[in-house]
Amino acid sequence: MKKSDFEYNADLFRGEIASADFAAKLAKGKLLDMFRHWRELGSIYLDGAVLTLPDSGESRLDGEVMGKKFSVQCQGDWRTGFGMVEAVVCTKSLVTDEPIEVARFLVSQNGAILSPTGEQLVTQDHPQVSYLTFVSIIRRVLNASS
């Protein structure tokens, strides 16, 4: 810890954390909606080329593409000063079976996709935000060295 950690006006914390928690819950809902959409995309639109497990857990999506397993996991994030969800995409090492991170992104409360530094990658108003995110993830998984 640093001295600056203790120079924060702690009286503001209650309101800030409540607001961030609410926003993170909205963002998580947006990502979980995308998870449901991605299951449909993989099995129906892509004719089963991308398989996703139906019950990966509340904050996780597990799948497989061309024999390569991957997962998308998420948790709340406050780095930008707003409540968001950070998602991490991993595949597994062929040798050690250890996870290998291949992508990381943020989801805002309105469904926009941002880089880990907060740069907007896809707006929430884009008609194919879910599909573009899905394709980007699958391409990252396929191009990752195992």
What is the overall shape? Answer: globular
Low-confidence stretches: none
Spatial extent as radius of gyration = 17 Å
Major beta-sheet overview? 7 strands, antiparallel
Strand composition percent: 25-35%
Instruction: Find the structural class using helix and strand composition.
Output: alpha+beta
Average residue pLDDT: 92
**Overall number of structural domains:** 1
Q: Care to count the β-strands?
A: 7
Tell me the helix content.
25-40%
Widest β-sheet, arrangement of strands: 1-2-3-4-5-6-7
Q: What distance lies between the first and last C-alpha atoms, to the nearest angstrom?
A: 36 Å
Structural overview:
The chain is of the alpha+beta class and 146 residues long. The chain is 33% helix and 29% strand. Strand 4 and strand 5 form a beta hairpin.
Provide a compact summary of the structure.
This protein has 146 residues and is α+β, with helices and mostly antiparallel strands. Helices cover 33% and strands 29% of the residues.
Give the helices and strands, then pairings.
Layout: H1 13-45, E1 50-52, E2 60-65, E3 68-77, E4 84-92, E5 99-107, E6 113-114, E7 120-122, H2 129-143
List keywords for this structure.
146 residues, alpha+beta, 7-stranded antiparallel β-sheet, 2 helices, 7 strands, 33% helix, 29% strand
